[in-house]
Specification:
The chain is α+β, with helices and mostly antiparallel strands. The protein folds into two domains: about 150 residues, Creatine Amidinohydrolase, Chain A, domain 1; about 230 residues, Creatine Amidinohydrolase (Alpha-Beta Complex). It has ten helices and 16 strands. The strands form three sheets. It has a six-stranded mixed sheet with strand order 4-3-2-1-5-6, sandwiched between helices. Strands 7, 8, 9, 10 and 16 form a five-stranded mixed sheet that branches. Strand 11 and strand 12 form a beta hairpin. Helix 1 packs across helix 6 and helix 7 packs across helix 8. The longest helix has 24 residues.
Length: about 425
């Protein structure tokens, strides 16, 4: 008698651990899809993000989430139609109870999703338009109709009598939601709860994004010489990032010479000169996952004052990196950094963002935010799986130079791992004389 073969095991989502295995290095795969090794699994990523959102909603006591923030829409639905839509308030998504998300998108994008986004039910992909930030007046009734449609979906899901969380909203839309009887609450905190712990796919995406900026800094180091302008560096970096696969270059700070102190947070057409201290910040996204990555580079030579400023900035950031581990409060990290008055500012508000930490993900600023302004009195717990950037700034004694350093770190089971790898242990000097 022939033995009956056992049935093959069916792999389910429960068998797939979304967490990173800290015994292995964080992978930085290329941007292609391949069949010969496991890279980023975008469907696993979608399941993880939607599960995190559902759990955060359940924990909140709300019945539904209505999101207009482009970062939250992408996190919840795994859809995007480009950066042009970010400030238009033309897209929104609804998660009602434990049902599948509904998405309202710009015209034909809804029809596109029904074909190319099979993880969303076809009946949940709607065309929608609320007025493009008032260009179509509220009196036209678009917001009124949308509020009624949202209310009907909530009733069908059995959660219309529960509060609804909203992240961002135009006042006329808020009024229409209230007019149909909805109890509107803050939903942004719920979404930040969902987004704070990253899966292995998210960590890989953030690592790929950081590796792209590693390459950009190598280019900047080679190109940084007298005669090139700040905006030339920005243009070349932007082109390079898009060629490597960036889907958004949000901003590139390029600051040089006498512009370094105080930090202006922008770039100009200033011509780079011999001996300048320069610093750059590359804020871009790969598959929606962002970088915030500063480096300071001197041009040709460095003075003692510039070297001293860099050494202090490095000491402060190294101390904060050493403090990072699960269970530590953000107040303990903030204490690693100098008080505002110790580096020339009158208050913590005036120097906010100079000695700073912030979560990274589909948004530039996620949890935790670390600063002497907010963390000393309102600390948050650092958790395994968080990813954030730490940045320090030190003005030089010459009165105009300054050093700026930033490292992105992944919180591991027992510490953290730095994923920004362009050398910064000592002050880099490009094209040394």
């Amino acid at each position: 008698m022939v033995a009956k073969l056992s049935e093959p095991k069916i792999i389910t989502d429960a068998d797939i651990d979304p967490r990173h295995d800290w015994s292995r290095a964080i992978y930085a795969p290329g941007t292609m899809a391949v069949d010969f090794e496991e890279r980023i699994d975008f469907r696993r990523l979608h399941r993880y993000r939607l599960a995190r959102t559902r759990q955060a909603l359940k924990n909140s006591g709300l019945g539904a989430l209505l999101v207009f923030d482009a970062n939250n829409i992408r996190y919840m639905t795994s859809t995007s139609i480009g950066e042009w839509s970010r400030d238009k308030m033309c897209r929104f998504a609804l998660l009602a109870g434990d049902k599948d998300p509904h998405l309202w998108d710009f015209g034909s994008a809804a029809a596109h999703h029904r074909i190319y986004a099979p993880w969303l039910p076809k009946t949940h992909c709607h065309a929608g338009m609320l007025g493009l930030r008032g260009a179509v007046p509220p009196d036209a009734g678009l917001m009124r109709d949308a509020a009624k449609e949202i209310k009907a979906i909530l009733e069908e899901a059995g959660v219309a009598d529960q509060p609804i969380g909203v992240d961002l909203v135009e006042p006329p839309m808020l009024f229409e939601l209230q007019r149909v009887g909805l109890d509107v609450r803050d939903g942004q905190q719920v979404m930040l709860d969902a987004r704070e712990i990253k899966s292995r796919d998210e960590i890989m995406l953030l690592n790929v994004a950081a590796s792209m900026v590693d390459a950009v800094y190598q280019m900047i180091f080679e190109e940084l010489k007298p005669g090139i302008r700040e905006n030339d560096i920005v243009a070349r970096a932007t082109k390079m990032l898009f060629e490597m696969g960036a889907d958004d270059v949000e901003a590139i700070n390029a600051v040089s010479g006498e512009r370094c102190s105080p930090h202006p947070h922008n770039f100009t057409d200033r011509i780079i000169r011999p001996g300048d201290q320069t610093f750059f910040d590359v804020i871009q996204a790969y598959m929606g996952y962002r970088t915030c990555y500063y480096r300071t580079i001197n041009v040709g030579r460095a003075t003692d004052a510039q070297k001293d400023a860099y050494k202090k900035a490095r000491e402060w950031i190294d101390a904060s990196i050493a403090a990072i581990r699960p269970g530590v409060g953000t107040d303990e990290v903030a204490k690693c950094w100098p008080k505002a008055q110790e580096f020339g500012f009158s208050s913590e508000m005036e120097c906010f963002g100079l000695q700073f930490g912030h979560g990274l993900g589909v948004s530039l600023h996620e949890r935790p935010i670390i600063s002497r302004l907010v963390s000393l009195d309102n600390p948050m717990e650092i958790k395994e799986g968080m990813v954030f950037a730490l940045e320090t700034y030190c003005p030089a004694k010459d009165g105009f130079s300054a050093a700026r350093i930033e490292e992105e770190v992944v919180v591991t089971a027992d510490g953290c791992q730095v994923i920004t790898l362009f050398p910064a242990e000592e002050l880099p000097v490009a094209n040394a004389y």
